[in-house]
Amino acid sequence: MTAKKTWPRRNERRYGGVVSSPKSLHLAGKAEKTPSAARIWIASTYFAEGYPYSIVNNLAELVFASLGASLGAVGLTSLFHLPWNIKFLWAPLVDQYETKRRWLIGIEIALCIVMLAAALSVSNAVPMGALAAAFLALAFLSATHDVTIDGFYLEALDEREQSRFVGLRQLSYKLANLLVRGPAVILAGLVGWRFGLLALAVVMAGITLLHAKALPRRETPKRPISDLARSLAQPQWVAGVVALGGVIWLEGSFHLLGKLGRRLVPSLARVPFEGWIAVALALGVVALTLRSRSRATTQSPYRAAFSGFLAQPRAGLILAFVLLFRTGESFLQKMKWPFLRDQVHLTLEQYGIANGTFGVMASFAGTLLGGYLISRHGLRRWIWPFVIAQNGLHLLYVVLAKWALSGSVGLGAVTAIISIEHVGEGLGTAVFTVFLMRCCDPAHRAAHMAIVTALMSIGFTVAGIASGYLAQALGFVRYFGFTFVVTIPSMALIALVPHIDGRETSKP
Questions:
Q1: What is the largest CA-CA distance in the chain?
Q2: Virtual torsion, Cα 353, 359, 365, 367, nearest 10 deg
Q3: What single-letter DSSP state applies at residue 19?
Q4: CA atoms within 13 A on the CB side of 192
Q5: How far is CA 430 from CA 3, 73, 163, 363, 393, in A?
Q6: Chain-centre distance for alpha carbon 232
Q7: Mean pLDDT value of segment 494-502
Q8: Which pairs count as long-range contacts for 60-68, CB under 8 Å and 24+ apart, including other chains?
Q9: Average pLDDT over residues 12-19
Q10: Is 178 exposed, middle or buried (0-12, 13-18, 19+ CB in 10 A)?
């Protein structure tokens, strides 16, 4: 009997954070041969994740307003965020068909085509509905793109490297957001929205070409995409898509739900349509997870992704923690600009300097520092200091609101408070990102990441809708105190949730 051949440790190499034998080096490809190559694809993919997201969620209202859309129509552009709230519904498909690399590049090609179509739709001769359809398609593609990128990242890197590159991920994502909200808007003001959107499409095409060359090949292809096409052509899928589109069209055209709400409970008339969507999604997530938990994981790969998530230890606590973790931050960020504008009397230019320049740089620094320290010492050591930094610094705005009531506040003091708060936000982002990655089963990485990020997105949506009413009722001093109080439940859950010391698996 011959001894089993083993590869000496000195022959093993690290590619993108994964220790691989010569057999796996063939799968890794040439693009991943150095740590710098891994940093390139990590930075480019997360820039690509934030890029179309920012176009949909930051430019849509500007484009429609410039074309003369009514205020109601501009407000309905918030519906373009819907795919991010429900992306967990189709996320398991990314794990079950082809490879995440092929999904990623294929979606980016589709994004280029849709962005080109959106640019060509910016014309008085083209119905505004065509532009809305292009933005909605862009939103669905972008949400699926997010699922694919997060799954690819978890597939290519081990747990330590995932923590190490958290800062780089966030930096790249926020740089994309800054590019779209700053230079892209300025360019559109100079040359018009048609050529501005064409320029954005050209940038997307360059990113796609880079990924076609640089992304490593780490997966064995699964079922061909043709199987998925045949599945989606089934009547129940087609009927579901048509029904969803019909409901959105009816509400947008006739406000049926709003009229019904006013008849039943007059005070409900103050809740916008997107608010009801957020509440319905939150209830839908609960119903779907309870239903999935009652089914066997062997019934279908799609159902297995959801029930597999719920099979991990203390899954209910994980869901609650994810939903609540950024709630206080969501309340704070939504009312920050109205407070600084109306109470502190900051101009838009001053706010851009304080929040958009110094604040963003402070957030970058906090996230990079947090990711580095967690990768060195583990999440257990740093979770409490970083979470307290994220949430406790909200109280600085209580002090600032009291100062504003008693007299004028200098720009330097405002900038310092904003920057310190952003450092805490960056440290909290590092904690949350590492925790979310540990919640993902290797067999369903993309689907599980989509579930937790969709939950987080629902928390953002609900908090944003309620923030204006609460700030008006409480006043800014008490409102900012409230933004800290609502963080207490999530902090109480830290002692109970799993995965703080690493990913845990359920016992048979």
A1: 87
A2: -140
A3: E
A4: 9
A5: 45, 37, 8, 10, 16
A6: 26
A7: 83
A8: 60/135, 62/185, 62/188, 63/122, 63/131, 63/193, 63/197, 64/128, 64/131, 64/132, 66/193, 67/122, 67/124, 67/128, 67/131, 67/193
A9: 36
A10: middle
C-alpha span between 53 and 179 (Å, rounded)? 12
For residue 353, the model assigns a pLDDT of 76
Structure tokens at 431: 């904690």
| Residue 35, pLDDT score | 63
Mean pLDDT, rounded, for 261-274: 54
Write down all domains in the chain, each with its CATH number in brackets.
Answer: 30-223 (1.20.1250.20), 309-493 (1.20.1250.20)
**Tokens 């076609």 found at:** 212
Q: Tokens 């920050």 appear where?
A: 336
Nearest to 102 by CA among 144, 131, 143: 144
Please tell me which of 333-342, 360-369, 448-457 the model is most confident about, judged by mean pLDDT. Answer: 360-369
SS3 content of the chain, % helix, strand, coil (to 5): 80, 0, 20
Q: How far apart are CA 60 and CA 77, in angstroms?
A: 7
Strand partners, 15: 18
User: Is residue 20 classed as helix, strand or coil in its secondary structure?
Assistant: strand
Q: Give pLDDT, residue 27.
A: 37
In eight-state DSSP terms, residue 498 is S
| Nearest CA-CA partner of 458 in 88, 189, 72, 182 | 88
